[in-house]
Here is the input.
Amino acid sequence: MIVSGQECYKRMYLAAAVMLCAQGALGQQLGPNAPAAMGSNYQPLLWQGADAQFALNTARANTCQVAADQLVGSRSSDSDVQEAAAHSISFEDRSEKWFKSTSRAIGFKLTSKKHPPECADAERLKSLSGDQFDREYAKVLAKNSRDSQARYIAEARAAPNSANYELRKFAVRQLAEVLKRKPAIDAIANRYGGK
Here is the structure.
């Protein structure tokens, strides 16, 4: 599906508005010098409650998206789908590296190699190929993009009493990247029959 110039600008403005809204919420809640403003309440590497759930959900989503992305090379001949998968792997890899190094530093257990998360979408995609694979992969990619966007917005807007400034910055940074990739993902999803 070819997107008109006007539609492209509309999507870019919408994406920028969402990103600024998330950044504004972060700035309003935590302030420009948040760690100093929080004083003794600032615990930069403490993941509890909603922060811990965000970390676990994001790590699981990353693992499952990469499992789906890795199937593209052997099951798709669509260059746009292959390019989207390559970008997705790169994005998820950067996210995973940040999470692994940060969680290791604080002793927070994300996932175990002995007990990896169940990734139903990747398992389902293993039995498909060609256009059928591309259609289902496009749905998975679009759904995961929407879920990631919602998860990062929620974390960026979360109540500041969790005192985790670094995790909020990570969420805003990831949200910007998700929004940047969104038009390409939407175009692929629309070409293969919607979201």
Remarks:
- Residues 79-106 form the longest helix (28 residues).
- Residues 12-44 have pLDDT under 50 and may be disordered.
- The CA atoms of residues 76 and 130 lie 5 Å apart.
